[in-house]
Write a structure and sequence with these properties.
With 200 residues, this protein is α/β, with parallel strands linked by helices. The chain has six helices and nine strands; from the N terminus they run βαβαβαβαβαββαββ.
């Protein structure tokens, strides 16, 4: 049974989608070992507790990044986490953190990377006037929104779209993409050559 660790800072909709996929058997042979937030008021951590999951608040305020990262890594290792899923975690992980879990940290980003990295990706896409947007699940490395891509889902930008409506439709695809990506990584049935992930 693979143990997943979820890191979140907000409502945790991708966390809920992952938890639902595990319960429904869409992600097999896995469980959520621990959910960690840096914000005590994060809605996602309340949902984790309601679901009976181990849920920890490890505040980041007033700590150096190194101090906070050490605490989070210690908690993940204590719960024997094999794969970490960032689900709206609004902190950059230090290179040291990433090195503790090489190719074992996933992130989801609401754009077709390398387009529109960083914050407000849908806002950037909408302002740029793109005709196609989407989402990307990728391995986390030492650079922002940069690691090898595992799954991407394209979303057409409609003439009638508003920024919130586009974000909503991308989010629907995020929930599907994250489940697919977790299954690929847990299967270990892939190889990475340069930036390219190939299924075996």
């Amino acid at each position: 049974m693979h143990s997943l660790g979820i890191l979140l800072s907000g409502r945790g909709s991708n966390f809920v989608a992952i938890a639902d996929s595990i319960e429904a058997g869409r992600i097999a042979n896995a469980r959520i070992g621990v959910v960690i937030t840096n914000r005590a008021d994060a809605q996602g951590i309340a949902i984790a507790r309601q679901r009976g999951l181990t849920a920890l608040t490890i505040p980041s305020k007033g700590k150096t990044r190194a101090e906070h990262d050490r605490e989070v890594v210690a908690a993940l290792k204590q719960h024997n986490v094999e794969l970490i899923c960032l689900a709206g975690y609004m902190r950059l992980l230090s290179p040291w953190f990433v090195q503790q879990f090489p190719r074992r940290i996933l992130n989801i980003h609401p754009s077709l990377l390398p387009a529109f990295p960083g914050l407000e990706a849908q806002e950037q896409a909408f302002a740029y006037g793109v005709k196609v947007s989407g989402c990307t699940v990728h391995f986390v490395d030492e650079e922002l929104d940069h690691g090898p891509i595992i799954v991407q889902k394209a979303v057409q930008v409609l003439e009638s779209d508003t920024e919130p409506r586009l974000a909503e439709r991308i989010l629907e695809q995020e929930h599907i993409a994250y489940t697919e990506a977790i299954n690929i990584v847990l299967s270990a049935d892939f190889e990475i050559s340069g930036r390219r992930l190939r299924r075996r």
